[in-house]
Amino acid sequence: MRCPECSNTSNKVLETRLSKDRNILRRRRQCNSCNTRFSTQEEMVRGDLMVIKSGGRKEDFNIQKVREGLQLALRKRPVGDDAINEAVENIKLSVSDRLDREVFSHEIGEMVMIELKRLDEVAYVRFASVYREFKDASEFIETIQSMQSVDYDSDQQ
């Protein structure tokens, strides 16, 4: 690291902190030449994460696709950007914690469903109808009834 004052590359690390998502290191440094203190951030870059599509094709993981899917399901629903960002971050962390660096697209879809169920039940049903390719109204009814029975069971405890 170069000192921002004198451009000397010799410095010492005074303090190191890890961000909440554990991907960014923040270091407080001091130049050995001019004693200027400055901060640096180092982001951990992991190897490329691949998504295995239903046909076996592989493509790079794109968090923007996850965000767009959530936003589409939540369109015109009373869910704020902060909640959407938190859901995206939860999915991103779940996917990036994988050791094998490959994830099936259906696993990502299930993660999206979990987040939507937590955020907004209408958006959950909306997403499920497309994701699970509902054929008729009875599948909507089954999904809603299963959600209600889960809610009823949790209320009884």
Distance between the termini: 57 Å
How many domains, in number, for the residues? 2
The proportion of residues in beta strands is 15-25%
Low-confidence residue ranges: 152-157
Question: Major sheet: size, sense and barrel closure?
Answer: 3 strands, antiparallel
Rg for CA atoms? 22 Å
Structural class: alpha+beta
Distinct helical segment count: 5
General shape? elongated
Strand order across the largest sheet: 1-2-3
**Average pLDDT reading:** 83
**Helix percent band:** 40-55%
Number of strands: 6
What order do the SSEs take from the amino end to the carboxyl end, as H and E?
EEEEEHHEHHH
Function: Negatively regulates transcription of bacterial ribonucleotide reductase nrd genes and operons by binding to NrdR-boxes.
Family: Belongs to the NrdR family.
Domain ATP-cone: 49-139
Keywords: ATP-binding, DNA-binding, Metal-binding, Nucleotide-binding, Repressor, Transcription, Transcription regulation, Zinc, Zinc-finger
Can you describe what's shown?
- The chain is elongated.
- The chain has two domains: 11-43; 50-156.
- Strand 4 and strand 5 form a beta hairpin.
- The longest helix has 20 residues, at 137-156.
- The protein has helices spanning 63-73, 81-96, 105-119, 121-131, 137-156; strands at 11-18, 24-31, 37-43, 50-52, 58-60, 102-104.
- The chain has a three-stranded antiparallel beta sheet with strand order 1-2-3, with no helix packed on it. The protein has a three-stranded mixed beta sheet with strand order 5-4-6.
- It is built from five helices and six strands, in the order E-E-E-E-E-H-H-E-H-H-H.
- It is α+β, with helices and mostly antiparallel strands and 157 residues long.
- Residues 152-157 have low confidence and may be disordered.
